[in-house]
Amino acid sequence: MTTKTIAHSFHIPIMGIGFTIDTPFKVAPYGISSSISLVDDILIEKMRKFYCERFDKPYQAISSKMDDFRAKRITAYLNLMQELVDEKFRQLKVNIDNGRQELDKYLAMLPDSSSIKQNFNEFVAKHQNSNELMNWLNENLVKGSIDVNIMTKLDKENTQNGEKLPVEFNDAHAALRGFAESSLESSIILSAGMNPRLYSYMDRFSDFFPTVDGYIKKKIILKTSDYRSALIQGKFLAKKGLWVSEFRIESGLNCGGHAFASDGYLMGPILEEFKTNRQSLREELWNMCAAALAEKDKAMPSEAPVQKITAQGGVGTAEEHEFLMEYYDLDGIGWGTPFLLVPEATNVDPDTLELLSHATEKDLYLSDTSPLGVPFNSVYGNTKDQEKQEWIDKGRPGSACPKKYVALNKEINGEDLCTASRKFQHAKLSEIDTLELSTEEREQKIDKVLVKSCLCVGLGTPALLVNGIETRAEGPGVSVCPGPNMAYFSDVVSLKTMVDHIYGRTNIIHRTDRPNVFIKELGLYMDFLKKKMNEVEVPALNKNLMTFRKNLEDGMNYYQDLFSKQEKYFKQVKSNCLKQLESKKQELRHWFEAVTA
């Protein structure tokens, strides 16, 4: 079964809501794949208006009073993105007679091993005719994919005229429909765990099913942090005839945004499990999928469609990138956080750009600010936290909650509220006032309420600020969600420079003390475990903590073996990595000896 050539071995994952809302327009014409968040249809509609005006395209507003407005807004925006990318990609090829600046940029960013780059140079050496060159470009140059991301748990129920709407009008369902009805030929990334109702809804759209030759117009990517979850979700979809075209493995803690920590399972052993079981996973899922396709009387490919395995989270050097690709036989690597310092690719306002470029380890932390109740990577000093504190100081804590995408809590009279909203926080603070508590207990409970931040606004605002779009409803505060890897990147750079760094043609990391990606993640998990140990009375008797400890120890043993056997990679850091692993093993042992003494 033939597969479409891809230009690059990396992709740009979704970051927040607004940071990558239009990244495909900026990078897809150069063959780089990226993804758009479908959380915020209000932001999406504003961005559609902005781009229509910028490129003199007809624009007709999709009002919130229209039926199915959320899905329609998403479809319209995605179609516009495809149109703009196609036009930009075409111009890159047709303007060769008036200078090859954009084409040269496309080619220069390709990895040195790229067959496209090599074949182009050979073709130009033999052919001077511009028509022949144009034909070659049309046949060989490829665009990056315009992928979309749905956080499956953000599936708020909706009402109209006081009546609850059917489930297909839930937020995630409507977003999926918006993508399914678009003209895109790309992938939908499903993150944050399984949503059975949403997954079951997918089989209503023919674009998710393969043709007889294995082509799937709209592919499914599952973002997962472990093999077991991937298998469970893959089986659920396969039984409906839906094929997972890519498993995207993300570090539980060494990533940006929400951090879905595993039970101490580390990235290396997880990748090893996928590597070992890759073929059996594909065969098992295809047997289920083929049976479901036959039962539904759908087209039946002669063999399983392509299934990719990719990874992301904390990768920061060309050597790490190359090692992961080669050793674990991966199809691609996600580079997210470093691209927050690439204005050509992402939307980051000047204040936040300055904050990120100077951030060190002590500035980056795992916060409790997310209304979802999931640990959230953040950076001290972000303008949304400053704005939040100003409202607290004025005696009016909480957000006005203008968008309500995370209004999922029903504690207050059964009403759907966001825990960062003013209404929810006022009710909880009033409740605390009625309790008989010590000063310390009272402060702890108050802090737990006030720490929540309006992320669905704060994570979208940078796109408005960067593009000069008014923010009267949202306010100017920006939430930002870099991964811990941000500490080692300090230069604001061009797209080409960042790509050159990824492929080892330059190095933009000035610090010499950056830990290896695996060692960094291990340290994050050690910190996470230490915090969990402090939350229980007898850690050694806590079954979950003991499982966590064993998984960490198994992971460290795996890494010791991995680094000891490495001859091609990590030569300069190998000795130090082995010392760090031994030190952390002893540290972990001492922690549990201390609590059992």
Could you characterize what this model shows?
The protein is α/β, with parallel strands linked by helices and 597 residues long. The chain contains 21 helices and twelve strands. The strands form three sheets. Strands 1-2-3-6-7-8-9-10 form an eight-stranded parallel beta barrel, surrounded by five helices. Strands 4-5 form a two-stranded antiparallel sheet. Strand 8, helix 10 (267-295) and strand 9 form a beta-alpha-beta unit. Helix 19 runs antiparallel to helix 20. The longest helix has 29 residues, at 267-295. The termini are far apart. The mean pLDDT is 95.
Number of strands: 12
Portion of residues in beta strands equals 5-15%
- The chain-level structural class is alpha/beta
Radius of gyration: 25 Å
Which bin fits the share of residues in helices? 40-55%
Low-confidence runs of at least 5 consecutive residues? none
Query: How many helices does DSSP assign?
Result: 21
Key features?
597 residues; alpha/beta; eight-stranded parallel barrel; two-stranded antiparallel ribbon; globular
Provide a short characterization of the protein structure.
The protein has 597 residues and is an alpha/beta fold. The protein has 21 helices and 12 strands. It has an 8-stranded parallel β-barrel, surrounded by 5 helices. It has a two-stranded antiparallel ribbon with strand order 4-5. A two-stranded antiparallel ribbon has the order 11-12.
